[in-house]
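In response to reviewer comment 3 from the previous cycle, which asked for concrete evidence that the modeling workflow produces usable outputs, we include below a single protein chain processed end to end. The sequence was submitted unchanged, and the resulting structure tokens are shown without manual editing.
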Amino acid sequence: MVLQGDSPPAYTMFELYSPKRLILDIAEARFADNIDTAKMLPTNGFVTLKVSTLEDKTPQINRFEFKLVESHGYMVKRNGNDLSIQFFPKENAPPSNQDRQSVKTLKSDGALPTALYDIVVRSKGHKTEILLKADAPINNYREDTVTGRSGLPDSMFIDINNIDGSELVREKTIATNVDKIRIATRGTGVRIVFDSGQKGLFSYDIKTAPQGLLVVIDETPQVKNTTAEKQTASDPTLDALIGSSEAVITEKALSPGEDVTAAEAMKDSFGFSGYKSARISVDFYKIDLHNVFRLFRQISDINLVVDESVSGSLTLALNDVPWDFALDIILNLKDLKKEERHNTIVIYSAKNNFSWPERASDNLSFEADVEVIEQEALIIQQSVNQSAELMQAKELLRKAKIEEQNDDIEDAAMLYEKAFSLWPDNTKISNRLASLYLVNLGMNAKAVHFAKKSLKVDRKNYQAALYAAIASANMDQVSQAMEFFSQSISGTPPMKEALISYAAFSEEKGQPEAALKLLNKYSEVYSDTVNTMTSRARLYDSMGKTAQATEQYKKLLYSGYQLVPGLKKYIRGRLTMNPAQLTQ
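The workflow returned the following structure tokens.
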């Protein structure tokens, strides 16, 4: 279907689910008088079209809503003033070369680049062969090396232009002299980065192969895995633990007998350039910035406030990237800044200044604790007269904040400790110390110590209880960790971070029933997320409760949530393994 115009269209597109829909919004457009929108798309068995006008939008938007069956995919392409929308059958597994060629022709009359669709790793003696599998030999490529800085490994990368790499996982762990392979879209092609797993760069050779490109790595007898070392050497931060607790649905090894390839694909689909948010594909052409940010509000479920001084339009096409990565690109392009706090992002011009309101609440969140040195966020004073010790403590807090802003965390912690010795009933200081020692310095024993100081003053300091629980878990003090976890979820309502972390901890310690109870409580209080639903399904799988697991996988598949490709493929694979339940 081709939408022909008399000027380049300003449009954006996104996907909705349950049922699957492609939404195409075109701004500042009108239909010619001879067009009947009800008859724009011929009757067929795989896609229907509904056209509507969003008159409440400024500028006015014409919306094309294509409802697709699951067996078909689509491609939208702009050619001058026209938009081409193409629909074609697809398979869950990578298609054969013959099928791939037919899809190529169907997509763009044979003009689509070669497809790169798999990474195959084979070990041969002291060599590792990595085949970048494509449907044709790859002759045109560029390779280069990068020396790692700031703790990053040395790496080699290959740039391949005019190739479709959308079917590849974003990361693949190798764990030899090559630690891992990362894939990123780059213009009309891809960049494939090989991170070294040893000190210095590995030796390699690159050859064109009949099925793509072959990379041969020379292995040394002693293989060093930098990723493993980093995981062992550093303790997880609070945010990282919460994130990993939620991501356990995709990163845990499958139970015996399950498909290892599917598990790796699901694991590799997460993590892109340090961004962890849900992935999206966007195609903006001369779209108003405010409409772009409204779309991010829908995708992220985070409050977005955009300053009135922000104006202009944007042209941007990104495929399968985290939404916060796409947002940062837009901010950089348009010389904008963002401030984030309390589930709210404020976007404003880099030329302006912004300050958060100074008012504090009785129940400060974890983010508010970061502002511990502000007088209003510490404690309401009951007396106008302040002691010399209190005044000295406040001065130490001011200096500690400066050191923290300069990333001198150890000096900041020392100043916070001195302030706490002068102001021992101020749990905001002891909470901050527990956070710094847990998150920044990896000193679990000290984190437990100051968390206990907070709990001694206030047994209902659930944030401190969570710090103590995580630090205890890091030290493998199971009984103490369970005690603190139980305390951390005893609030009304219980903290969502505590429920998720406790569930992950329970699962790791072989207590799936307890993990399920915690996830069910999370669902009852906060409603389900993609992570909790998939985690619940995986727990049922591990307990041998196939029917319940299948029910959860189906619920997730048709929930309407946007699923990353690897996770969707994994769920379909699990359902395929249980055909009896699938037909119920």
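The chain is about 40% helix and 25% strand. We consider this sufficient to address the reviewer's concern, and the full set will be provided in the supplementary archive.
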